Model the fold of this input.
Amino acid sequence: MRYSALQILKQGLTGNKGWKPVWREPEPKPAYDIIIIGGGGHGLATAYYLAREFGMTNIAVLEKGWIGSGNVGRNTTIIRSNYMLPGNQPFYEQSLKLWEGLEQDFNYNAMISQRSILNLFHSDPQRDAFVRRANAMILSGADAELATADDLRRELPFLDFDNARFPIKGGLFQRRGGTVRHDAVAWGFARGADMRGVDIIQNCEVTGFEINNGVCSGVKTTRGPIRASKIAVCVAGSSGRVMAQAGMRLPIETHVLQAFVTEGLKPVLPGVITFGAGHFYVSQSDKGGLVFGGDIDGYNSYAQRGNLPVVEDVAEGGMAIMPMIGRARLLRSWGGVMDMSMDGSPFIDKTDIDGLYFNGGWCYGGFKATPASGFCYAHLLAHDRPHPNATEFRLDRFKRGHIIDEKGVGAQPNLH
Amino acid sequence: MIINHPLLGPRDASEFVYLGDASLINRPDPDAQNAAELFHTYSYERANPAGEHRELWYHEQGDRSWLVVTRNTLTHAITEVEMARDVALKQGRDR
Done:
């Protein structure tokens, strides 16, 4: 069923009896052309683009729980393409362009709102670094705009401009950045893939791989064995656990990141504001809650919950840059587990095992990458060669010395 | 999380800096034939287990000793804390 204003009118006049489930709940078949492990944003996007762009539909998406129950429903919903390095920036700009056309493309309301993202700076050297980043963004076809402290005083008068430690000297805007309704992204991609014949199989946990003589030919699951010539792992956060079943060690540590939301307020924040120096960023959801977060907790964890020192650190960051946040009451906090890679950048690659593909290592930045990750992974699966925008995301890049280290802190995952 | 320091008793984890897997104690032999391969594995690849994990914590806000902490990554429960120096000595290293 195609969603439209006319459809709403028609259904409204006929008692809303015609709405159908948004995707089927099929039984797994014994074999497929491609199995995608992981029914999160990236896995569902991969299935969607395989079907839509590359004409492949004999595909199963296997999900341990229910679709969208992992990080696609736990992030802080921000989209942006304000990276710098050549291996990264064209990819993230491709992603932002896909976000811009996504709702029309998959005919689903994902509430994409390009309300801008602002990175604050506090010193001359930081300003220089941001000017350089802005130029790299513009070269990749993205937008970037430098704002002075006076510009910001007019636009965001509530910030603490004269903070003793981090006085605000200006900021870097990306006006095309913004927020998305994250659950709707999973649902929209799932619906689009399902309509084209992809089987989305929920409550189906992969418990092992069928690997003989270096060739992967299927998976064992809690709902029986399933064969396929290509197995695409897409489980960022749990990559360590899943790939251990294939006997692979990865350049990844799993860490926990917390996020927070306040009670609903009238509109106070026009866009996303990031205060990197104080480990704090914030936006306001359409429901009114201030959605904010900071750094990862900093130790290996699969627990999906963090500890109080980071809660305190994030709250201090918020109070430092935006003192009015102290008037809002915290409603909820939660944690998600991240694949923290050794250079802070992701992987979309074939593994050394024939037929086994890997997508992961998204650190705390996977949500914004969802459409391009799906598109590039689909390209790799369909053509067995990487998409031009994802050629750097290789598993062997550390061996070759071609790391993509945006932050420049080396092989120390909890510092990225 | 509270880390029960073998010398100082229970200390809050926020006094510590986290480095990662305790296998980082075992630096490969730089003179080995395949040293490049060994250092690649040592520097970049991790077991990253879901469950019991032996890891290095540095008591930066305290006595500046390195500890090997055994902690469950699914529950954050700490079951054992040793001085990293003792662990290295036990493995036959001279310091």
